[in-house]
Amino acid sequence: MSTDTTASVSTHILDTSAGRPAEGVAVRLSARPGRHAAWQDLGGSATDADGRCKDLPALPEGTTQVRLDFEVEPYFLKKKAEAQQDAPAHRDSGAVFFPEVAITFAVAAGEHYHVPLLLNPFGYSVYRGS
């Protein structure tokens, strides 16, 4: 029988415009024990060369909702500066369309939640992975 009383979270980012992991994206993790409770910032990490955050903080006991905040603007600005941007030049206004992505989801004690982010300059998708 498992004695784990908290949920756990992991994530990774794939830049679908380049077909590669998104390295160096800052990710913050927040949690709360209910829908009306205040968010508690637990800390963060950054994606590695494989686009993964392997050292996100543990969730406190009693967590029922989690939020992952992805700071994607610096990633896209760096990509643009390195002339690796795949977006058509006529659409490039100099601004990042999605400067950040916030994903909020419900969790249950003892479960692991892997939440991948599929990202491109003009859209994103997220799902519960395994």
Can you walk through the features of this model?
The protein contains one helix and nine strands, in the order ββββββαβββ. It has one helix spanning 73-81; strands at 8-15, 20-21, 26-32, 40-46, 52-53, 65-71, 101-106, 112-120, 123-126. 7% of the residues lie in helices and 40% in strands. The longest helix is centred in the middle third of the chain and has 9 residues, at 73-81. β3 and β4 form a beta hairpin. By secondary structure, the chain is mainly β. Strands 1, 2, 5, 8 and 9 form a five-stranded mixed β-sheet that branches. A four-stranded antiparallel β-sheet has the order 4-3-6-7.
Assembly context of the chains: single chain
Percent of residues in β-strands:
35-45%
Shape: elongated
Count of helical regions: 1
Which structural category do the helix and sheet elements fall into?
mainly beta
* Order of helical and strand elements: EEEEEEHEEE
Query: How many E-type strands?
Result: 9
Keywords:
130 residues; mainly beta; 5-stranded mixed beta sheet; 4-stranded antiparallel beta sheet; 1 helix; 7% helix; 40% strand
Question: What are the SSEs and their pairings?
Answer:
Blueprint: E1 8-15, E2 20-21, E3 26-32, E4 40-46, E5 52-53, E6 65-71, H1 73-81, E7 101-106, E8 112-120, E9 123-126
Parallel strand pairs: 1-8
Antiparallel strand pairs: 1-2, 1-5, 3-4, 3-6, 6-7, 8-9
Give a brief description.
The protein is mainly beta and 130 residues long. It has one helix and nine strands. It has one helix at 73-81, and strands at 8-15, 20-21, 26-32, 40-46, 52-53, 65-71, 101-106, 112-120, 123-126.
